[in-house]
Amino acid sequence: MLTLVIGDKNLSSWSLRPWILLHHLGLPFEEIRLPLDTPQFDEEIVHYSPARRVPVLVDGERRIWDSLAICEYANELAGGRAWPEDAAARAHARAVSAEMHSGFQALRAAWSMRAALTGLQVELGADGRTDLSRIDEIWRDCRARHGAHGPWLFGRYSAADAMYAPVVLRFNSYGAELSAAARTYLESALADPVLQEWIRGAEHEVRVEGRPPTHA
Q: Which domains does the chain have, with CATH numbers?
């Protein structure tokens, strides 16, 4: 049995990516949640990750950290189902996923993930607006080129959708203005039952556990 070590569902965008992909791939796993910015996190994360960060996937003696590395490992476990079958689409999906993994710093800084919350009002600066426009362009382009066979970026669900899931939640929380095509994708992604399960977990943290939504 796989074990995925994650942070708060309201806050940890990095944790969401492998969590949602493992669910979509049908790979069963045990979930261990360590509350961010707490003594418990500091005490326990050292048992799972040399980087002392979440997420971490534990598979027997193996420890895989970093969200994109975990997605690639999950792809191998699932016989390649995490990426499109077509080679050109697969290369495209990996490119936009890597761009998400390493980029959009201005948007991330201004609009940190608050999965349980909506109606937040934080103005984006010029760099943040550039990031938003680029993500809108990516979604429109992927859907136009590869979306004929399903509602996801490349038709069927892929690691690319998992990589952009935190942005879906950010846009929902802060009310991003999007093109019609990008808005359609956003609404489809928000309706995903797996993402809805994550949101319910985030709401539980904020309302029941009293975890303050203050982590950037």
A: 2-80 (3.40.30.10), 87-196 (1.20.1050.10)
